[in-house]
Amino acid sequence: MDVELKNRIHHLDFIRGIAVLGILAMNIVAFALPFSAYANPYSFGDFSGANFYAWLVGHLVFDLKFMAIFSMLFGVGIAIFCQRAEAKHLASEKLHYRRMTWLFVFGLIHAYLIWWGDILVAYALAGSLTVLMRNISNRAMLWSAAGLMLFYSLFMLLQALMFPFLSEQDIQQSILPFWLPEASVLSEEVAAYQGNWSTALAYRVEQTLSIQPYLLFYLPRIIALNLIGILLYRSGFFAGRWKSSVYALCATAGVLLGLAVTAYGANLNLSHQFDWRFSMADGMQFNYWGSLLSAFGYLALLMLISQSLKGFLHETFCRVGRMAFTNYIAQSILATLFFYGFGFGYFATLERAELWWVVGSIWLIIMIFSWCWLSFFKQGPLELCWRLLTYGVNR
Length: 395
What we know:
about 400 residues; mainly alpha; globular
């Protein structure tokens, strides 16, 4: 067996594979529908019957949960990368910053040339700060993570205190175009993404420039989740060193509590019909915290499954996880080809319930692609490229 493959933590690959697939289940709305539809389901299209339940399943089961898992695993990746570099007597931080620089570049390419919803830029920035805290004590790391999670939550609550003082002009120019756009604004976005590649590019560049600054507000949460991932890694969680009964207890408690908190928040948001005055501040708190509980529960459940599941299915998800970087970008390419005008042109034409068929189809393609690629190569194409840019061609 290849030494690098032998040294991999296969539970991590398995969970990472599930996570990158799970992320698509929420991102598909942002691929297929206008920007506002992701946060405010009342802003575009039908929101009743099967479409309501499609949104509800996505919100309760997927929204922020798998992104949280991926962020924790990103923190684990930073810790492992630095440990292995130091074991080889290499300058770990220098290599890490080179690695993050190239991730930032990949993120910019992804955001401006493929899809505006890129998260790699934020991960690169967060990773550049997380590495500075990778060696602090467990207690300091736990308090740092808690403080960072609380910071963003309080920021959103304090923002709500300013809402009564906003002028009508501020609301019309700064909030409603993103939360509840007029028909003309929606039509412009639909026309752009149903148009040719250059039309979509021009609109995407302008859209990305307006969205990316807000990613900075997500950095505290991403860093906090990175640190939580490192703490779990230190504890032996991903090595399977916890008792099965503890994994089962964490899975049950995390999933049920997270689901309860998120469901309560969903009910409140629905009762307010996603009015921006409530949902942009108070209303977002429930899934913000509920998703953290759910993500931890999912991790414990996935560890139990990974420990017991063997054979083809386990290996399939491991292969998807080994190529998570490639598959994240591949999902964007496949989705934009399906929805945008330079491809099949289904943007803003499918109902929310119908999007699940697209999700399932892309999942199947990704799993087949990962299995076939890794049958001939050791790494995914983007993983190999990233490695060569980080270490150079001699390693």
